[in-house]
Amino acid sequence: MAAGSVTGLTFVLFGFLTTKCTYDAALKQLLVIPLSTLAGLFGSVIDSLLGATLQFSGFCTVRKKVVGKPGPTVKKISGLTILDNNAVNFVSIMLTSVLTAVACVYIF
Fold first, then answer.
1. Integer angstrom CA distances of residue 4 from 13, 21, 80, 83, 108
2. Structural domain count of the chain
3. Amino acid 107: pLDDT
4. How many Å apart are CA 73 and CA 90, to the nearest integer?
5. 61: helix, strand or coil
6. Residues 6 or more apart from 5 whose CB is under 8 A from it?
7. Confidence band of 20 (pLDDT split at 50, 70, 90)
8. What is the pLDDT of residues 58-79, one digit of tens each?
9. SS3 77
10. What are the angstrom distances between the C-alpha of 57 and each of 42, 48, 80, 103?
11. CB 8 within 8 A of CB 36
12. Global pTM exceeds 0.90
């Protein structure tokens, strides 16, 4: 949420400092801050849900650490072996981007 709100605030501040627009248009741009905050929260939740359900997580008894791939010395902690960490990140970014773009079409 913090990163999303900082991104939205930065967009609005640079917009106010670098462009000239009507008062109504400038006020409407303030909606970017809560939108980007919600997008940050939603993206984090999606990433966590996908990681917990579709990404394998196991404990290697030899190396004594959590690993992302199954093996003969790995005891499963949670998740399925459908996505790896990079795929989870990619899917969560794409879902967040598409849903935020759709929200922007309706807001702006």
1. 14, 24, 29, 25, 18
2. 1
3. 86
4. 29
5. coil
6. 33, 36, 37, 40
7. confident
8. 999 999 999 999 999 999 999 9
9. strand
10. 22, 13, 8, 33
11. yes
12. no
User: Which domain covers residue 82, as residue numbers?
Assistant: 2-107
**Whether 68 contacts 84, CB under 8 Å:** yes
CA pair distance 55, 37, nearest whole angstrom: 26
Across the range 12-19, mean pLDDT stands at 89
Helices (H), the chain: 2-18, 23-29, 32-54, 85-107
Beta strands across the sheet bearing 65-67: 65-67, 57-60, 74-78
Q: Give CA 39 to chain center in angstroms.
A: 7
Asked if pLDDT for residue 4 goes beyond 90, the answer is: yes
Distance of alpha carbon 5 from alpha carbon 44, whole angstroms: 13
Q: State which H helix or E strand residue 78 sits in.
A: strand 74-78
Residue 30's φ and ψ, nearest 5 degrees, are -65, -20
Tokens representing 43 are 């993206």
